[in-house]
Amino acid sequence: MKTVVSIGEALIDFIPEKKGCGLKDNAVFERVCGGAPANVVAAVSLLGGSGRMVTQLGTDGFGDHIVEVLQNVGVKTDSILRTDKANTSLAFVALKEDGNREFSFYRKPGADMLLEDADLKKEWFTDCGALHFCSVDLIDCPMKEAHRKAIELAKEQGAIISFDPNIRLPLWDDHEKLKQTVREFIGFADVLKISDEELEFITGKSDIHNAAPELFSKGVQMILFSEGAGGARVLTPEYEVQAPSVKVAVSDTTGAGDAVIGAFLYGLTERNITCVSDITKETAQKMLTFANAYAAYSVMGKGAIAAYGTKEQVLSFMEERGL
User: Fold this and answer.
1) Which residue range(s) make up the domain with 206?
2) Tens-digit pLDDT profile for residues 229-286
3) CA-CA distance, 176 to 183, in Å (whole number)?
4) Which residues contact 76 (CB under 8 A, 6 or more apart)?
5) Which of 11, 15, 1, 9 is nearest to 44 (CA)?
6) What's the whole-model pTM score?
7) Number of domains in the chain
8) CATH for 308
């Protein structure tokens, strides 16, 4: 089985004790390992796949905790570098009464942002079946160029390139530059994971069917579109499949989108798929149904990685619900 490699931020999420209010009204927070790229490879590894994390952490206790959590779920961490030039990035996240999330990041800079393209080793990508990245570390910093190098090294191995924009507006002073950067890196992606909230910001269109032709014209071969309570769908130029939302008692939605793409990428490597065009409509439906169920399973627990399940747990969950 090929390895899913993630590059980008691995950080500490501080999750508030109280829901339905902003950060200023919370006094107690729980520390959890987070960062979307880290969540994705953790999901892959928990499901029984091979996941590798490429990032940089500070030489602090938070960095130690992240490495320990990722190792405990089976992620390859020899490609995680450490530095004393900056601390491990932190993020405080609150779910407000209107359902929107409020973020406050502590990374000026964070250790992840200082990873340079010269730091990457070719051997980290020799068994790469898919490379996944997001936009948080595409700000103007050395890590942005490390992403370009990682994409180059992964493409040399014939890997599928997966991109989840994962828009975080508070990290960008210039939102137009964020949009331009995301649109540039969409051009490198074979698989694009995008949410209904992000679609209009990136494309100016609110309907995925209106936006899809433009995304395909940039070279994207497959769109994984998550719609929250509306479920998820996969679109290609040839077909579309859909999976409805799974009703569960929601505890915490942190990392749900990462669970979707993580489970989907696991499905690619599980089937030894190295070319998106080899994914039939029937296979896409099976992979999407499983990925959608995996995300539903995750929101019943607290935190992201801590709430992710194994393949056996999720298959049992799906059987119970007739999925």
Assistant:
1) 3-9+36-86+113-320
2) 789 999 999 999 999 989 999 887 888 999 999 999 999 999 999 999 999 999 999 9
3) 11
4) 3, 50, 51, 52, 53
5) 1
6) 0.95
7) 1
8) 3.40.1190.20
